[in-house]
Amino acid sequence: MLPGAAQAAGGGAGKAGGAAAPHRAFPLAQAPRPAHRLIPSQFPPIGLFDTVATAADLSAAMELAGWTNDRLVAERIARLPQAEWVYGRANSSVVMASFLHVSPGGMRFNGPETGAWYAAADIRTAAAEVGHHLRREAASRSLPELRRVYRAYSSRLDGRFVDIRRAHAPAAQASLLERLYDPRDYAHAQPFGEAVRDEAWRTREGARAAGVVFDSIRYRGGVNAVAYRPSLVLDVVQADHFAVVVRRDERRIEVERLRAG
Predict the structure, then answer these.
(1) What's the Rg (C-alpha) of the chain?
(2) Which tens digits make up the pLDDT trace of 146-186?
(3) Does the structure show a pLDDT above 70 at 23?
(4) How far is residue 256's CA from residue 235's CA, in Å, rounded to a whole number?
(5) For residues 193 and 111, what is the distance between their CA atoms, to the nearest angstrom?
(6) Alpha-carbon gap, residue 48 to 75, rounded angstroms
(7) What DSSP assignment string belongs to 206-221?
(8) Could you give the 3-state DSSP secondary structure of residue 78?
(9) What is the pTM of this model?
(10) CA-closest candidate to residue 76, choices 108, 111, 41, 48
(11) What is the pLDDT of residues 104-119, one digit of tens each?
(12) Within 13 Å and on the Cβ side, how many CA atoms surround 163?
């Protein structure tokens, strides 16, 4: 468990909120609006969180559905501040799932202990991001080609975000930026992001930022954001379905909008 995450869950004060925290050297900005996220259609949406009215009802529903039988999911639920549980509104289950189901190694700005809501300024950037991971999967499975269908969601990410886009970052942070944008290594980016999360969870409404906005590494000119507070992922709406096709030995990504029916 990351120290910051543990302190956030327990309400203690951590070092991440101090003036020396690296993220405090960067300006703040709004996240892209709307922000777009692609989720594999092989994971059908489950409305577990959408219709319950209270946190107690939600706990009972999760237990009934067997979510708490998964040790890692149960630990993430316990780690996530109850004030950040999202329920009783459309697609809240989709939001919560992004925080409770995490890849073993985490992602660029979050460790494996707790997930986050990643989204892009446009569908092209979102497709480039998922296409990169799809190509890595094709390589690991020795597949020459891989096709996957995704559901698109649009959302409004509220709050302010630490802006590490190169065009906006202080020149003095150039060395740190190179480490944060390392295309293969998350060793610096994950602690950076978790420090932002720690501060956001501990101080909530008084937090400096709710996430990070950053340049896409996979799509030139693209912009991404990662949000650490489920309660500020708002107006989530399911849109189109897209088929994404990658080939193991090619950089090109094919994206097709699928027609309904």
Answers:
(1) 18
(2) 999 999 999 999 999 999 999 999 999 999 999 999 999 99
(3) yes
(4) 25
(5) 9
(6) 18
(7) G-S-SEEEEE-SSSTT
(8) helix
(9) 0.88
(10) 111
(11) 999 999 999 999 999 9
(12) 13
